[in-house]
Amino acid sequence: MVNTDMSTLKGKTALVTGSTSGIGLGMAIALAKQGANIMMNGFGDKDGPIAQIKACGVEVDYHGADMSKPAEIEDLIKQTEKRFGAIDILVNNAGIQYTANIEDFPTDKWDAIIAINLSSAFHTTHHALPGMQKRNWGRIINIASVHGLVASAQKSAYVAAKHGIIGLTKVTALENARTGITCNAICPGWVLTPLVQKQVDARAEREHISNDVAKTALVSEKQPSGEFVSPEQLAALAVFLCGPDASEVRGVAWNMDGGWAAQ
Description:
The protein has 8 helices and 7 strands; from the N terminus they run βαβαβαβαβαβαααβ. By secondary structure, it is of the alpha/beta class.
């Protein structure tokens, strides 16, 4: 019999970092549709995304913590627990990117990427785990990347951070293996976020080709399927990882990448 209950996470609270756009917003919306209250975080416009979450019929709040600053991350955790009573689901999604050869890579860019893409997940997990351990239930989902499994040139900091996220995921899972807390990583390939769509548009204009042809050309350089992964597909995986059927999925780096890492 098909389960028609669309509130499988009703009463739970999810903190999603970097959730005002792209993958993070997709995660927040999907979890809200399952009944979870949401604490949002991120830069840029927040009013529109907050309205989208509210439309799902759940409680929502926002904290503007800079994910490169440990003190602000600690406050984010404390304020989420104060507002909702608990953090049941932690989605570490915040991330930035910069590309250059190693010899040309600015030190400040390296430090910023490691801080936001890797260290922030340690700090959120460090502060969220005690509450999860007290309740003996929790789901920690780290948004890594296919670059946590394989490398690309000119992305030294990003690749190092994402490989590190997978290592952190495994340790977190092992340390909590005898509890009701799981920790897993999702490793997306190319995702058609607004930022990537701009790359597609620019390529179409530059090469005088259609948007569809430009999209296929961009993606197929790395992703054999020639298709983008959608935030909604990634979010559906996150919802599964939060459910009872995934209680023994622990310490996994689950790639959704159109065959990228299979090559």
